[in-house]
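Sync notes, pocket subgroup
Present: LS, DG
LS reminded everyone that the earlier model was apo-only. Rerun requested with adenosine-5'-triphosphate included. Inputs:
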Amino acid sequence: MADQKSQAALFQVYLRLRPPPTNQQIATERFLSVEEPANDDELPTHITLNPPNDNRRRAVEKFAFTTVFEEEATQLNLFHGTGVLPLVEGVLGPQGGDGRDGLLATLGVTGSGKSHTILGSRTQRGLTQLALDVLFRSISNQMLDPNTTTSLHATVAASDPSEAQVMSAQMFLDTMYGDPSAASRASSRAPTPMVGESYPPPTPRKNFLQRPSQLPQVPDISNVLVDVDPNAEYAILISMYEVYNDRIFDLLTPASPNKSTKEFRRRPLLFKPTEQSPDRKVVAGLRKIICGTMKEALMVLEAGLHERRVAGTGSNSVSSRSHGFFCVEVKKRRRSRMPGQWGGSALTIVDLAGSERARDAKTQGATLQEAGKINESLMYLGQCLQMQSDLGSTTKPNLVPFRQCKLTELLFSNSFPPTSQQSVPSTPSHSYHSHHPHPSSHRTQPQKAIMIVTADPLGDFNATSQILRYSALAREITVPRIPSVTSTILAQSTASHYFSPRAGGRMSPSETERETMEIAALEIARMSEEIDGLRHELSKSESARMELEAHLESFQDRAVEIEAEVREECYMEMEKKMQSELQRWKIVWESERERGEAHLDKKMEIYTRSIDAVDEESENKENEFDLEAENDRLRREVEMLRRDIQSRSPSKRMPLRESRAYSGRDSRVCGESERGMESVGREMERLRMSGESVLKGGQPIMSSPTKKVRKLTARKWDLMDEREIL
Ligand SMILES: Nc1ncnc2c1ncn2[C@@H]1O[C@H](COP(=O)(O)OP(=O)(O)OP(=O)(O)O)[C@@H](O)[C@H]1O
């Protein structure tokens, strides 16, 4: 049935059955049986799901897979039987060119053995470790050592199309696990950047993770190698992320506290085309770690798994509520003195979340949003798988509805060969392929994908059947029939018809009876068929209703999410605006303050000047008073001198016009003396004015006319001519 289809499918889907726990009593019945393969040397490909014997009459379903691994299958059986080796080899591109992207995914109900298969246990290695082992050993002679190759970091970072933060393993591991060689040093020491690392080292964790003491070595595959490109040199980049609620989060960048709310939040990343990758979507902004050894790669994996657990717990979730991605990017370039740009492809290992029944999720208290998102993404995954296997063709991406959610976009974006336009490299002259003899091999091969579905035949029937429905390459449904009354009647009537003797042309009463019975039986058979058909219709519409309900729930959740996002955006925008407004206001306030100060300074200057002017005026007034007083004093002195002259002997007396003038006997003389007095007054006024002008000119007050007048001694006065005095 599905054999041809599975050959053409983009995914090879394997089923692994989990063995029962060794130390537990088995209480439940096995609901799953494996069909024997046609040939003894082949592995089984089909299983039948037998519903439990409850009151509900359910269909028996038969599922087809590429191969079914039964309970006794070992890790090594899986490693060799699922095509992990060709997957790794394809990524290394032994024939030259970029190689072929590989995808290894696990899907299953919680506890069905996904982690055991993909990551192993304490004692056994999983497919991831085995794939890394064979990969690192195969390229060991051609891999560049990140610790000694100075240009490695810079060239790899420059060629990365995903706006990634490329970091050395040493730096990353020191921030996550602490520096083992520096136990005595302060634990908060920032790690030393490697040569070529241009960005500041990340803040070390407060609580370092515990370095795994010993990693499991079994199963041993030291004799297994894959072919590599002999003309290439390689570098390995590891990144990890998860899809939670349809959003992508980096697992190698721990959550950082929000500036305003102080809450630890993870920044969702975008799956988009970038400047360097315009025709191919990539997860942009991831942290990528250059690993030189397998041990470093495993330590990075451990750190990422820890982050997934911590982030899951923080958001009230458990690990299986997100789809985890572990990416091993194999960078390769031509080995030469003048190597070209880095090219390469990636091996992506995905741990898909198990589906949840919405009803169970509610009763178990898990958020409906998570359950809805997981169910929705798995439903889209199932649709894609179904579509691609139905089409039997890998060249029609438009017919596979993989753009409906992040999970299917991430899983299927590289599943289709690029269009003729896309296959032309954008910078052919610099790329690895330009130097290569087969440039046409660039990205012409779509990714090779393997899905391993794990199931516990003794586990939850409903959850397992849902997972199998989503993942199987093909499905057949058989509706079982209860041995019906119709068939019994018909059997009886047929038997009696053959063996009862017929008499003449007339029908005996028993014949009429039998005929009636036959008609009734036919009618019952028809109705029974109809009921079966209706039941089938009902079960179909019921599952459609459930899907629609899941849809509705997820749309509602999306609406809530969008609302929260919009609110957050508005808040951020508002805050930004407030900040810029505050900044603007501060500038305005500062300039206003400066202007006010300048204004005040000016006012003060004017005020000081006016005070000086008032002082000057009052001083002038004082001088005037002084002069008036001096004037009076001089007048008195003149009077005294006159009297003195008058009282002297007549021989000594000199004829003085003033004395006459002052005696008032001769009016002419008197008039003259008055004019003389006036001229004395004018002289005094002139002296005052010149004193003023001297003062105004800033000369010391000592040189004032008043002082000059004062300097005239009595002797001088005596010797002076009277005219001179007047
Ligand atoms: N093939 C196997 N052989 C032996 N033990 C197994 C096998 N598969 C699973 N187990 C055991 O079953 C238990 C559950 O398996 P595991 O943790 O791998 O389940 P899971 O599907 O990854 O669950 P979850 O989704 O919760 O992580 C583990 O103890 C594991 O060791």
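DG: The longest strand covers residues 232-244.
LS: The two ends are 152 Å apart (CA to CA).
Action: DG to write up.
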